[in-house]
UniProtKB/TrEMBL annotation, chains A, B:
Associated pathway: Amino-acid biosynthesis; L-methionine biosynthesis via de novo pathway; L-homoserine from L-aspartate: step 3/3; Amino-acid biosynthesis; L-threonine biosynthesis; L-threonine from L-aspartate: step 3/5
Entry superkingdom: Bacteria
Bilayer-crossing regions: none
Organism: Saccharothrix mutabilis subsp. mutabilis
Function: Catalyzes the conversion of L-aspartate-beta-semialdehyde (L-Asa) to L-homoserine (L-Hse), the third step in the biosynthesis of threonine and methionine from aspartate.
Name recorded for this polypeptide: Homoserine dehydrogenase
Assigned protein family: Belongs to the homoserine dehydrogenase family.
InterPro entries, per database record: ACT-like_dom_sf, ACT_dom, Asp/hSer_DH_NAD-bd, HDH, HDH_cat, HDH_CS, NAD(P)-bd_dom_sf
Residue intervals of the ACT domain: 362-435
Coiled coil: none
Keyword Transmembrane helix: no
Cofactor (UniProt): a metal cation
Any Pfam family hit: Homoserine_dh
Length: 441, 441
């Protein structure tokens, strides 16, 4: 479109993703112009240490991110990460009418409300496909494709590092510590792996997915979060023994009807539950085959039924692809004076605390191999009102392995059951206690 | 949004999908209003026989589709199917500035250029998520999420009827005829199954996917099309013997560099190839596990890498979900005076004819079990410049089975090779010849 005023872009941050964004903007310039209807021009790149970025044009580099945001750019692309100064910069951009494309899951999971309000005050766009599951189109399907349906469940593997570690433990039988070490050595885990292994990254993503799926503001603080550091080789072995495997899942559910008795939710007829925790899933489940650094997300909706999205969940190029897709969308919106979807949080569903969210459990015990053991154990379950779905007992040389899978029970009921069982003289060891997902209850 | 002017919708057609559209519009009315920013109001439903539609409000029914399109509606939703009178009605709608949501793959695969031009003449929207793979968000990811990337390949199972039949043949060993009969009895195949089993439906979808993926107008006539009627129980058995299964695939590829010598494409450095045919794929391939009426599509892009989309590819509710998602999008665009993506066909890449598109082949022969047979057969391959990738020979009582998998070869070279091999005295029967996909060549 010769003659068409270019869309000017400010890039904040130039790490792995930023460098790829610059490369794609350069390599695909002609295509992007045709797709947007105007040239897309990189106006500046804000970095902390300009001399560390020899792979991008030096004349675009600046250390003054604020001045870049305040300049006459149309779009701000943010790949710095972290909460501050990013939050302040993006609020400033949106309040001055600049559209924002961001990959910042932590920021969105804390401050999306504030960011959307800033966008609304000027009619600017806020896009964030790259914030969840890298290149896999997931935000747009939830926010747009399924906007006429009623989403009931989103369940997926959204963190590559923990998936790499759990896949490794499953295939080698090694411990969590050994496998984490290997992942760090190979570059799949960061030097400080906390954000990944303790589930913070997955919890941010779960908050974003739940917000979109249920038209409700959900922040990271609303997400029940358990990491993988407690997953033992015994858990993995116990899962294998029953044709299951262990994955760190992010689960967002719409729950109808009662079951909650918190005062503030007493009158609600619908709740949501958002959680991140390791769980055993059947090896035949499509998520079981998602290995290494790949991500996959299941979505269930009333009319659409079950869908799955699969692909590379992280990395410079895949994340940059998602950023560029959003950049094309917001730039197109500028050209036609249109606007993308706004925040949709009208439903404002209450979040049900994990203590009231029943899930199924897999419990593996070492027990004495003699008559009456099963009935003693079963009596404890009955006493706590935890219903047993399946039992498998196998004799060994001088003891027996007893595996119990429950029907849905709350954490509290399960914990008291397990505590009491652990104290029975016939039970030698509670080998593994883990949630079970992906099966009919 | 009380006080906001409603978005008036005309529905053309009220079969399985239309009925579900009406149901969702009614059941989700409050949600749709909140998501769109204005009430979405069904203004009329055009049908041929009003007395046959007792499940929708009688006062909305009309037999005069043209008058409904000409009335003061904002959006026309089309679920009639077929080319005429649909084409004329939609052109009329778009030319008078009404946005169109359609599920009509055959119409889009023939006339999308004309429809987009009509939309462009007034700035109306043309959305068609429901035209390919039912509820699976696929159009929006290709058209928007990957708009900043370079898509190299789209390969998938996009027809549920043929997939149901091939899954059935694979699990029972029954013939094509028997399995088709069963599919018809169960309602998975229509009384006249031609559009499905001869690949017309999949070819329309392939044309739509290729158009979006490669920013090029591709019509059904550009698609090389082979159906499944020739797939024999012997083909299925031969596939099984080597850990493969047979699927009807739609494949859209970007091919760089030479290899074509048609005059009109002689100077092009890039081509596309679009085809629908049965092919053997490894049982370990993610598409191999897609059974029955499900659809799944692989997409590969330079930066994003490999992605897969999976879900229900047909049926009233899933298709209606896709229609409603589009309806929310075009209605939102009306509310904010914005506009969705326009046709993007600027790349205008030449389509390479199938005769020049090399693919790999699996050939299964019954041969005499005596020395020298393999060398005679191999010599014929060498003579036609078809390179052999793998061979497996197995002796039986008085003959032998010889399976050959080739490297990529053109149809023409393969056909002459097979013709000549069929004439060799040592070859008793050419049991099966079929393309192989989803493996490294």
């Amino acid at each position: 479109m010769p003659g068409q005023k270019p869309i000017k872009v400010a890039l904040l941050g130039c790490g792995t993703v930023g460098t790829e964004v610059v490369r794609l903007l350069t390599d695909h310039a002609a295509d992007l112009t045709a797709r947007v209807g105007a040239p897309v021009e990189l106006a500046g790149i804000a970095v902390r240490r300009p001399n560390k970025h020899r792979e991008v044009p030096a004349e675009l580099l600046t250390t003054d991110a604020q001045a870049l945001v305040e300049s006459d750019v149309d779009v701000v692309v943010e790949v710095i990460g972290g909460i501050e100064p990013t939050r302040t910069l993006l609020l400033q951009a949106l309040r001055s009418g600049k559209s924002v494309v961001t990959a910042n899951k932590a920021l969105l999971a804390e401050h999306s409300g504030e960011l959307f309000e800033a966008a609304d005050s000027t009619g600017a766009d806020l896009y964030f496909e790259a914030a969840v599951a890298g290149a896999i189109p997931l935000i747009r399907p939830l926010r747009e494709s399924l906007a006429g349906d009623r989403i009931t469940r989103v369940m997926g593997i959204v963190n590559g590092t923990t998936n790499f570690i759990l896949s490794g433990m499953d295939s080698t039988g090694a411990s969590y510590g050994e496998t984490l070490e290997e992942a760090t050595r190979l570059g799949y885990a960061e030097a400080d792996p906390t954000a990944d292994v303790d589930g913070f990254d997955a919890a941010s993503k779960a908050a974003i997915l739940a917000s979109l799926a249920f038209h409700t503001r959900v922040t990271a603080a609303d997400v029940h979060r358990e990491g993988i550091a407690q997953v033992s080789a015994a858990d993995i072995a116990a899962a294998k023994g029953l044709g299951r495997t262990v994955k760190l899942l992010a689960i967002c559910e719409r729950v109808s009807g009662g079951g909650a008795d918190r005062n503030d939710t007493a009158n609600a007829s619908e709740f949501i539950s958002v959680r991140v925790h390791p769980a055993m899933i059947p090896r035949t489940h499509p998520l079981a085959g998602v290995n290494g650094a790949f991500n996959a997300v299941f979505v269930e909706a009333d009319a659409a039924g079950e869908m799955m999205f699969y692909g590379k969940g992280a990395g410079g190029a895949p994340t940059a692809s998602a950023v560029l897709g959003d950049l094309v969308a917001v730039a197109r919106n500028r050209v036609v004076s249109g606007r993308g979807p706004r925040e949709s949080a009208y439903a404002a569903l209450p979040v049900r605390p994990m203590g009231q969210t029943p899930t199924r459990y897999h419990i593996s015990l070492d027990v004495a191999d003699r008559p009456g053991v099963l009935s003693q154990v079963a009596a404890v379950f009955a006493e706590h009102d935890v219903s047993i779905a399946a039992v498998r007992q196998e004799g060994r040389v001088d003891d027996a392995s007893l595996v119990i899978v429950t029907h849905a029970a709350t954490d509290a009921a399960l914990r008291s059951t397990v505590d009491k069982i652990g104290g029975l003289p016939v039970v030698r060891d509670v080998v593994s206690v883990m949630r079970v997902e992906g099966e009919e209850s």
